[in-house]
Each structure stands twice: as structure tokens, then as C-alpha cells.
Amino acid sequence: MTQLPSPDQIRRAPKVLLHDHLDGGLRPATVVELAEEHGYPGLPTTDVDELAAWFTAGAARKDLVLYLETFQHTVGVMQTRDALVRVARECAEDLAADGVVYAEVRFAPELHIEQGLSLDEVVDAVLEGFRAGSQGRGITIGTLVTAMRTAANSREIAELAVRHRDQGVVGFDIAGKEAGYPPSRHLDAFQYVQRENFHITIHAGEAFGLPSIWEALQWCNAERLGHGVRIVDDITLDPEGGATLGRLAAFVRDRRIPLEMCPTSNVHTGVCDTVAEHPIGLLKDLKFRVTVNTDNRLMSDVTLTDELARLVDAFGYGWDDLQWLTINAMKSAFWPFEKRLRIINEVIKPGYAALAGG
């Protein structure tokens, strides 16, 4: 019997991450230190281990809106230039230590201006931190600038993203409470990004269903779907295990629209009860363009190694499956085409071949 990849082996494998929130991935010790340094009073505890447990327990309440409440404290300590540089630098260091060779990390600049930073200063600080943390560590980071779908600043944030496209920003996103805030509310921002020949990914089909996915694709021209897990609502299974795809699901699969899937986070927000029940297994079997992501490493107490190891446990995935998922992600990145090919051919394929052969 072929031995399945172990967590230690997976950690050494070259991995690609497309959906990771900067304010959802802080080190617990950093949250405590920044709160003390900047006089932030709101933490429930200053014990590092207790705080880490509090974040995970708070996020795992089976509801996206409740899940998002935990971010008030991480955002609360990310209001100065030095704090933003530090958090971004540590993010790059942590991802590199986990074997991630390419990552797209997203954040919402409008949440970090409470102490007087301009939107451009916020983006500059984060980009500086990513550059410092990536240097010499074998990781490339592209930044995704996110607008909050519950606010009315999306056009301004879209312009901000485009303004920094040559400094490391690779695309534009909207995030936040999904129900009641459809992507089409921000149509002007998306049309601006399209006119600028820039990239779009949209949180859609996480806590709300097919209409959100349809609007993201057909109104707003999303190139990728953040989560997109509810596309399974357009797939009918027969008693023999056969699958019939509805028109939207067929469109997503036929067009090879990438799904930025985050299994552990989806368990915490109530999409399913266990990773083994997550639709990623079905969607991979049906050959959707599935990618695997962390979403919020602090809140879900997870690394990309953990996510892949849980899929190995749940679905018996071997090295070929993990490489397929990784190449899916690299193909779907917003990095320039020739650089994507280089990472696939010179980093990912040799890396997996060496591990599978060993």
C-alpha cells in the first residue's frame, strides 16, 4: 500500500496560497505586544496561549457574522505604520516557514486609518513588510487590496489597488458580511478595475448561495471565487453517486473558474461539521478548479500544511492530488504568466517529484 504524505513531508512541499487574510493571521504574541505598545485596551486576556484559544473558540461559532467579530482586536492593534510593517513581515516569515513558495495575502486598507494613516500609507507599510519578510526566504507574495462590502468606499479602494499595482498589489477583492450585500452594489468599482486591465477576486458563495456567485461572475466579472463553496447547491447527486450540474455549476467548471476553498474556516463558519464533509472532495472529483487555502490562520489555528494534511486524512489524497491542487493554485494566481510557469516548472514539480520519490 502506498504511504500517504505525512504532515512533516507536506510542510517541506512547495505550496501555493491564494486566500489568506493579513488581519486573520497574526501571531498571538504579536497581538499582545502591539496592544501593550500602543495602549489598545480591548483584549480579553494578555496571556498568549489563552488569547490564541480565545480567537479560535470565538471564530468556531458556526456563523460568519460571529466569526468576523474576532477581527476587532487584530485590526485594533494594526493602526500604525510600524505595526503594519511588523505584521506583514511576520506573515511572510510564517508562510515561508510553512513551505509556501507563492502567496496572495489580502487586507482592507480602510480598516487601518483610525489613527491618521492615509490609505496609501497603509498599503505602503504592508508592502514594505512583505518585502522585508520575503527576502531570502524563497517566497513570493502578491498583495490583494480588499474593500468592505458593507461600506461605500469600494471605488476609492479599487483606485488605490490599481495605483499600487507596480509595487506589489496584484488584484482587488471585496469581503465582509455576504448576505444582504451582493457584489453588484460595488459594480462601479469592478468596472473600473476591468477597464484598467487589472485582476478581480470576490468573496462569494461562502455564507450565501448561488445568487451571490452568479452576480460575482456575470455582473462583476470575477476571475476567481473566494470560497465559492455554495456552488454545490447547483449540483444534484443521484443514488448511484452520479452528478448532474446545473447551468451555473457547469459554467464555473467549463470556464475553469478557480475556487479559493478554505475547509477549516468553513467548518468554523458552519458550512459543514467536519473537513470530511466539506464539498471540496466532491468538487475535486468533478474536476472543478479547486485550490486549498487557510483564510485566517490565527482564527482557525491552521497552516496550509494543516489544511492539506486534513485533506489527506479525510479523502486519502496522495502526492499526485496535492501537486494537482498546488498547480491549480499557481495557474490561478494573479502573478505574471511567465513567472507562474517558472514556479510550476522549476519549484513545484521538482519539489513534489523529490518528495514522492523519497
TrEMBL record:
The active site is at residue 206. Its cofactor is Zn(2+). The keyword Glycoprotein does not apply. GO terms for biological process: adenosine catabolic process; hypoxanthine salvage; inosine biosynthetic process; nucleotide metabolic process; purine ribonucleoside monophosphate biosynthetic process. Catalyzes the hydrolytic deamination of adenosine and 2-deoxyadenosine. The record marks 227 as: Important for catalytic activity. The gene is add. It comes from Actinomarinicola tropica. GO terms for cellular component: cytosol. Zn(2+) binds at residues 19, 21, 203, 295. Binds 1 zinc ion per subunit. InterPro entries: A_deaminase (IPR028893), A_deaminase_dom (IPR001365), Ado/ade_deaminase (IPR006330), Metal_Hydrolase (IPR032466). Its EC number is 3.5.4.4. It catalyses: adenosine + H2O + H(+) = inosine + NH4(+); 2'-deoxyadenosine + H2O + H(+) = 2'-deoxyinosine + NH4(+). Substrate binds at residues 21, 23, 176. Belongs to the metallo-dependent hydrolases superfamily. Adenosine and AMP deaminases family. Adenosine deaminase subfamily. PANTHER family: ADENOSINE DEAMINASE. The keyword Metal-binding applies. Keywords: Hydrolase, Metal-binding, Nucleotide metabolism, Zinc. This is Adenosine deaminase. Residues 14-349 form the Adenosine deaminase domain. It comes from the Bacteria. GO terms for molecular function: 2'-deoxyadenosine deaminase activity; adenosine deaminase activity; zinc ion binding.
